[in-house]
Design goal:
The structure holds two protein chains of two kinds. Chain A is about 70% helix and about 0% strand. By secondary structure, chain A is mainly α. Chain A has a single domain (about 1-165), classed as Arp2/3 complex 21 kDa subunit ARPC3 (Orthogonal Bundle). In chain A, α4 runs antiparallel to α6 (about 110-135) and α6 (about 110-135) runs antiparallel to α7 (about 140-165). The longest helix of chain A has 28 residues, at about 140-165. Chain A is globular and about 45 Å long. Chain B is an alpha+beta fold. Chain B contains five helices and twelve strands. A six-stranded antiparallel beta barrel of chain B has the order 1-2-5-4-3-12. In chain B, a hairpin with a 7-residue loop joins β7 (about 180-185) and β8. The termini of chain B are far apart. Classes of the chains: A mainly alpha, B alpha+beta. The interface of A and B includes residues 50, 51, 68, 134 and 139 of A.
Chain lengths: ~170, ~270
């Protein structure tokens, strides 16, 4: 128990540092912003109670907001992703259900399951985030385009990281 | 009482969600307006230390380019001194006041935090009220527009970048003097849009756009960019796309320009309105 808390703490810190020190500085053509920190929400174990997921998502978004100088944007979008996580997990549950106490990782449930899971949560998060950022429905299709391109990059990054994590 | 507790237990997730989302949205709406940059300012107090360190590393890596820019600017300034000093000598002026005829005061500063990929971009510089920076001072890079200071603390200032949907600037076409309103449409960090130029005027691709000085923030004639595309829209006005001179991705050293006569001008204008 203590061991796994320590392990998730380490994952959270590493992902935060990756986001803040490296990915925040990638400003590729003004369209692509990978937000890999959302992986923190993805990887929480399946037994985490829903309210704890919500609090962790809020705090994650809060810290990212502090570094971005964007009040409330990431906090509200990440919170929405954390809120939708139990529903997504229920919809895409494998046939035998989730093993109690297992990690929600590619190593346990396979590439296909994890890809669907990551894509869904990332799309929810990015849709909320980009619409909150522009805060209007003018330029609707351009916003949609930004959401799709950024989601593609974020999901790609997440799958890559998860793949190497699986290899270890 | 028991029913209430059961109710709370059953819906605890939704209650926590709505409560936290409420906090986030309140923060979002109260913190994001143009003048209310106090939140941004306060938050950056926490993260500034780390950002400054990151920026130090980055500026070291770009030294070569900065040197080239500095020497180019030096030479152009030297040329200007040459011209001006020749003219001064003709008139035999001698004045004791060091601020005689000076309207603008320049301070140089380093950008320690900046972005181009958001819809509302801000930047942070490493000088603040202790170094004489005040709100509403203009920020330029070389001869080109960067933004306007919107909040200061002791040693740091936050500026609104030209790349911000809330940014408006009075700009004119250098060749014929017609002025309009410059803003950013949120699409490309290299382009901005000039509005309110009526359609009977001839605008050519390649024309230089500069500031007017009407707002008493920017001096007159600071360069912004060149016209890259002219479109006739349905209304009476052109939609002119401007390619910016400033490359916001590599802005590092900036000049902060204070207008020494701004208060006087604003006071007079307010009296008459």
């Amino acid at each position: 128990m203590i061991n796994s808390i320590f392990r998730y703490g380490l994952i959270i810190v590493l992902l935060m540092l990756l986001q803040i020190l490296v990915l925040n500085n990638i400003q590729f053509s003004g369209f692509v912003n990978p937000y890999v920190y959302i992986m923190i929400i993805l990887l929480l174990p399946s037994i985490t109670p829903a309210w704890l997921v919500l609090i962790i998502s809020f705090l994650t978004g809060l810290i990212i907001d502090l570094f971005f100088g964007s009040p409330g944007m990431h906090a509200s979008a990440t919170l929405l992703a954390g809120f939708s996580r139990p529903f997504v997990l229920r919809v895409i549950a494998p046939r035998d259900g989730y093993e109690t106490g297992s990690d929600l990782s590619m190593a346990v449930y396979g590439f296909r399951w994890f890809a669907i899971y990551a894509t869904t949560i990332v799309l929810i998060h990015h849709t909320a985030l980009f619409f909150i950022e522009v805060f209007r429905f003018a330029d609707f299709f351009r916003t949609i385009f930004r959401i799709l391109v950024s989601s593609l990059f974020t999901t790609g990054f997440i799958l890559l990281i998860e793949y190497y994590r699986k290899g270890k | 009482m028991r029913n209430l507790l059961n109710f709370l237990l059953k819906y605890i997730n939704i209650i926590v969600f709505l409560f936290l989302e409420g906090i986030a949205l309140y923060w979002l709406t109260s913190g994001n307006s143009y003048h209310n940059s106090t939140v941004v300012k306060g938050m950056q107090g926490i993260t500034r230390g780390l950002e400054e360190r990151i920026s130090n590393v980055r500026s070291y890596l770009n030294l070569r380019e900065i040197n080239a820019n500095l020497s180019a600017e030096n030479s152009s300034l030297r040329n200007r001194i040459e011209k001006l000093s020749a003219r001064e000598d003709l008139r035999f002026v001698s004045v004791g006041d060091s601020l005689f005829r000076q309207q603008y005061q320049y301070t140089h500063a380093r950008v320690i935090n900046n972005s181009v990929n958001k819809q509302k971009n801000y930047f942070t510089i490493d000088k603040g009220t202790l170094q004489g920076i005040k709100v509403d001072m203009a920020v330029t890079s070389g001869k080109d527009v960067v933004g306007v200071i919107v909040g200061c603390s002791g040693n740091f200032s936050v500026g609104i970048s030209l790349l911000n949907l809330d940014f408006r600037l009075s700009a004119r076409i250098r060749s014929n003097g017609y002025f309009g309103s410059l803003s950013w449409d949120g699409r490309n960090y290299r382009h901005a849009v000039l509005n309110e130029i009526p359609q009977h005027i001839i605008v050519n691709v390649g024309d230089t756009i500069e500031t007017t000085g009407f707002s008493a923030i920017f001096p007159e004639g600071v360069e912004i960019g060149t016209v890259s595309d002219v479109k006739k829209s349905g209304s009476d006005f052109y939609k002119i796309t401007i390619e910016l001179f400033t490359d916001f991705k590599k802005v590092q050293y900036v000049n902060v320009i204070g207008n020494l006569k701004r208060t006087e001008q604003i006071q007079l204008e307010n009296q008459l309105q």
